[in-house]
Amino acid sequence: MTGVPRRVLVAAMLGAVLVLSACGGQQPGSAATLGDSRITEQQLTAQVQEIFTAQGLPVDTADATLTSSTLGRMIVIDLVDTLAEREGIVITQGRIDEQIASYVAQAGDQPSMEATFVQQGVAPSQIESVIRLNLQAQDLGVKLDPSGTAEAQGAAVFAAVTALSDELEVTASPRFGTWDPATLQVGPVPDDLSTPPSLEQ
Which pTM does this prediction carry? Predict the structure, then answer.
């Protein structure tokens, strides 16, 4: 079962966060903005703390990489939700439950399945959202490129999500990194924030 959730995250493509071109569009308290909507720092903190708790770590653990990847996943989930809505794609709870049951069967039991996701930075409470993302990506691939191979369909979805990111002018708070719509990932914190300010007058 080791590779199953990894394929979920990869097939769902998107582990991602955004290219910050300027701070001007960033709203106070926002970890990221997507057009008129935003992901708040409070929402991001809550998800990261859930992961730390699932990993048996203190909730105030410092892990910039995990924080950035979690923000990236949240951004991509929002983008794919928007794209799926535009394309009339709806994922039922039944399909999600079937996928979870399949993973549990492969892992042997529910705790083992959840543990594999936790190792990849996904708390048990977040598994359904990742599975929904994966199913949305699959359906979008079929909708966007009906006769294409799985690889071509994946590329079509990636391109569509990238275009939507540009359309919505997604930005991430420089505290957490920079959003790169070309890769759908959160990159490093800008140099001017990571370098300590000079003490010289």
Answer: 0.81
For the chain, domains (ranges, CATH) are 4-184 (1.10.4030)
Amino acid identity for residue 141 in this structure: G
* Residue 14 amino acid letter: L
- Contact between residue 43 and residue 74 where contact means Cβ atoms under 8 Å apart: yes
Burial string for 106-140 (b: 16+ CB within 10 Å, else e) reads ebeeeeebbebbbeebbbbebbebbbbbbbbbbbb
Return the axis-axis angle of helices 110-119 and 127-144, rounded to nearest 10°. 80
What phi and psi values does residue 75 have, to the nearest 5 degrees? -65, -45
**What are the helix (H) ranges across the chain?**
4-11, 41-54, 64-86, 93-107, 110-119, 127-144, 150-168, 191-194
List the end-to-end C-alpha distance of the chain, in Å, as a whole number.
Answer: 58
Q: What is the pLDDT of residues 117-128, one digit of tens each?
A: 999 999 999 999
Show Cβ contacts of residue 196 under 8 Å, excluding neighbours closer than 6 positions. none
> What is the mean pLDDT for each group of 10 consecutive residues in the chain (201 residues)?
42 32 49 94 95 94 92 96 96 97 95 94 96 96 95 95 96 93 85 44 35
